Task: structure prediction
Amino acid sequence: MPWAVGGLRLGRAWVAAPDPAALRARWAALTGAEGAERDRLFRPTRTRTPTTGAAALPGQRSPSTARFADVPGPCPDPVRVLRDPFDEQWLLPDQRLIDMARPELWRVLDEHQLFAVETPELLVTAHLPAGRLGRIRPLHRRPGGAEPNLAPGLLALLGERYGGRVTPQDVLCWILAAGRPGPRGYEVPLTGDPGRWLAGLELGHRLLAVQLRGGPGAEPPRLPGGRRPYVRSAVQAWPDGLAYDPETETLSLGAGTVSPVPPGAWEYEVQGGTRVLEAWFAARTAHRAPEADGLETLGPSEWPQAWTSELLALVTTLALLADLAPERAAFTPGPLLPAAELAAAGVLPPPRRARRPASVLDHHEEGPGGQFALL
Result:
């Protein structure tokens, strides 16, 4: 996957939140303020201030491309993003508010797109990654899944080697099964054994279905009947903390309880030993933390029921990934495809053009101040 892009750099935490209503409230508070108070709430950086011009984000209905200080415009509709590992939140899609929005990713964002995110554990998401997650590798270089972000000639070579059609998603599934972090980044061995290829595909497709929670139009994977988490006691008012009882497999959010929560889900960690469930809960209580300031303090006053539904889905995802972890750790690619064969087929090294975004500008994009964007 030669084309890789650095993660979005938001520059200000208040432009993203777990609750879309909170983002609309923050927009209203910001646009209703004036002078020095608006500057303070905006939190200017070297890249973005209220007087900075910016183009519209591709594919988004921009409220305005005039300077924010002059014409804020109406609040843009929040969009779903991957904010942290396994944490789907919402973002205000206004480039005037985002230090580095990576418009080249927005141009290829559609229902066909998947993003591989390089963290110590490779993550795949259908949502745009928006945070300090790692390098992003889109599966497709153009909208509509028209061109894979793969080294030219790779699909044909693998199809010939393994005796069947190989799709871009097959390669992504193989990466999930066989790829591992290495000293030069995420390393993906290619097997020379068609049997190992099929075994890796089977495992990778299961991993992908879990990470995507089924994906568009598909039923999300579920735990067996006796292991499915349920709400035993509803979350009331606002939970004062998160706790786990390993003996009863009960997760407590204040007086609310969810069980059974398998130990593998509670203990699931990413990026330096951070428990995913604890990080997820902390993100939803951040607006109530003593250190919260400015627009970041605006959030729900009561625990939204939708968050409990998200929690059940997240517990299921983490439990299923924990169940698959031993199988993935034991998977080996077998005899490797010789590098000389890849070089002879023109797959390695990939051409420089494959490392750059494709030209996908098929309509006018509005630049700063209503001008046409030039690329």
DSSP finds ten helices and 15 strands in the chain. The mean pLDDT is 93.
